Amino acid sequence: MTPGLARRLASMAYEAFLVFAVAFFAAWLFFFASGGRDATRGFLRVELQAFVVVVLGAYFIWCWLRGGQTLAMRAWRIRLVDVTPRKALLRFLLALVLLPVSILWALVDRDRQFLHDRLAGTRLIDARPTTS
Q: Using CA atoms, how far apart are residues 132 and 130, in angstroms rounded to an integer?
């Protein structure tokens, strides 16, 4: 069963805090690796942005492949299923580009899945224990 949209959005809000921390750490590493040069303009800025995206991609893909959950998804008991390394990379890239549209898509999708999940061939499921 697909978790409700409100629960998935709450998980995404929590994830935003974690993403900020991961991106901050990546920028800090980049700053020291570049000798403390100013990376707010020019090609160094593009390199910094690319590095942060690669680090975030590694974080998400590693979490999804390791157990189908990031820390935020674990807290909200949401799991990604039907994931392979190729699908995880595709899901990350699609979410990176389509996230706002993807959220709106979930309002009209027959299974209430995000667009990036639909296109990548993955699904989010409710990971709460079932009571029998």
A: 6
| pTM of the complete model beyond 0.85 | yes
pLDDT in tens, 61-83: 999 999 999 999 999 999 999 99
Q: How many residues does the chain have?
A: 132
Closest by CA position to 127, among listed 86, 75, 92: 75
DSSP string, 11-75: HHHHHHHHHHHHHHHHHHHHHHHTTT---SSHHHHHHHHHHHHHHHHHHHHHHHHHHS--HHHHH
Cα-Cα end-to-end distance for the chain: 16
Which tokens belong to 60?
Answer: 């998400």
Which residues, 6 or more positions from 132, have their beta carbon under 8 angstroms from its beta carbon? none
Higher pLDDT, 79 or 1: 79
Query: Taking Cα atoms as reference points, which of 104, 109, 41, 46 lies closest to residue 54?
Result: 46
